[in-house]
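I can't quite decide. Please look over this sequence plus structure tokens:

:::
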Amino acid sequence: MLKQKLRDELRQSMLARNELKTSVLRMLLSAINYYEIQKGGAGYVATNDDVLSVIQKEAKQRKDSIEEFKKADRIELVDKETKELAMLKAYLPQQLSEEEIRNLVKETLSQIGAKTMTDLGKVMGALMPKVKGKADGGLVSKIVREFLS
């Protein structure tokens, strides 16, 4: 299970005295534990899909932080967040390219027969399970809106 792999890597990074990796893994495991508590208390165990969604959430937070720190000209914090993001991406599945997303959107639009923005919900509902964990939802939504407008 992915959560156990993260725990094992935390132990290894602590033994290797890799402070950044240890910090990122502790944060990630803490976020996963928090997710489990919110879902069902002490008895709930996160599935691999749950763990991946937590990792994606944390990666998105890093991306948002990087943008804000760039605006504030805080280069040292941009560097820190960039390193953390790179570590988080190592645990995510290979992301789809923009071209691959565009092809999936075209395919989904033709299957559903969507032509206007009123069909956005139907398209996103059909498309998101196909790209779950492999693409940023914001990017997918942006591309779908381009095709529908």
Remarks:
- The mean pLDDT is 89.
- The domain at 98-148 is CATH 1.10.10.410 (Arc Repressor Mutant, subunit A).
- The radius of gyration is 18 Å.
